[in-house]
Design goal:
With 59 residues, this protein is mainly beta. The chain is 0% helix and 41% strand. It is globular and about 30 Å long.
Length: 59
Amino acid sequence: MNTLLEPGMLVRHPQRPDWGAGQVQSNIGGRITVNFEHAGKVVIDGQRVELRRIFDTSE
C-alpha cells in the first residue's frame, strides 16, 4: 500500500501510535517523508514499515 501514498494523505505508523496522525510530504523510491503531529518530520523506509492510511479524521 505504501506505493499508493501521495503527498497530502493522512497516515499512522503502526508501531508508533503516540506519534499521532501524519501527513505524507513525499514518497520517492520507497522513502516516505511524513510530518507527524507529535514526532515532527520523519523519513520512513516503506519496505520495512507499512503505514496505515487514515480515511476518517476521527480515527
